[in-house]
């Protein structure tokens, strides 16, 4: 089997399962432009590294390409077309000066309070109620914005409170169980007049019942943030984003574990799986050391030193 045949078959199978495969397909087509006619089994780790180290490829893109190829190769190894994974041993270290914004609970309330004023114009593509539910859903699940906007009614099991996310970033699918509050929120939202029940319909729709694009949500959120008076000092190049709700979810979850006396280090792999990360280091980058989180870590350490407890 050639690399091109393997890529074509892999993409068609994944799409038949309901995945769009836009970014993975584009990366695999790029890989095929280099090695398409060659036998899949002839590909070596140095070949793959040559593709990964292409011009203008930063560490983040390198990791995305690596993750896509790893899933692709694992697919064909399970089917006997590959004996070993032809992948380099390690990805380059990820370095970034970017620091996500962690919203306080007071700021989260301020955002929700400002939603009606933000979406009061009839020209707003997104209704106030849908925007409010989307914000609560993102904070309550830690889901990526694109994942939430891509959900169809058939992906949400409202009876059991479980959401199915089909191959998005890093080309992984996963089940996301909903907490009680988020589950009740979605039940109420789904029952609202005008929210159809067709299986193929998007869970979150515009005022005119069309799919919502991410740029629309991001633009609306920046307007919302300004109305709520939430910003960083001018010295920061980045202002708070809607994606930072995902970081906030992770930090608040770990804070809750600390305060409940749970074994955080044991629970972190479960959080990583829940968030859809490829490894624990990706999750650890989400846990920005806020003063609140640092204080809880210090209290745990002091208890270990002075109280004779177990440290993590």
Q: Tell me the distance between the termini.
A: 49 Å
Q: What is CATH's topology name of the largest domain?
A: hpI Integrase, Chain A
Biggest sheet strand line-up: 1-2-3
CATH architecture of the largest domain: Orthogonal Bundle
Class of secondary structure makeup: mainly alpha
| Count of distinct structural domains | 2
Assign the CATH class of the largest domain: Mainly Alpha
Oligomer: single chain
**Average of per-residue pLDDT values:** 84
Task: List the total number of helices.
Answer: 13
Describe the fold and architecture.
- By secondary structure, the chain is mostly helical.
- The protein has 2 domains: 3-78; 99-312, Intergrase catalytic core (hpI Integrase, Chain A), CATH 1.10.443.
- 54% of the residues lie in helices and 3% in strands.
- It is built from 13 helices and 3 strands; from the N terminus they run αααααααβββαααααα.
- The chain has helices at residues 3-16, 22-35, 45-52, 59-78, 105-118, 128-141, 145-150, 180-190, 214-228, 244-260, 264-275, 280-286, 291-307, and strands spanning 156-157, 162-165, 174-177.
- It has a 3-stranded antiparallel sheet.
- A hairpin with an 8-residue loop joins strand 2 (162-165) and strand 3 (174-177).
- The termini are far apart.
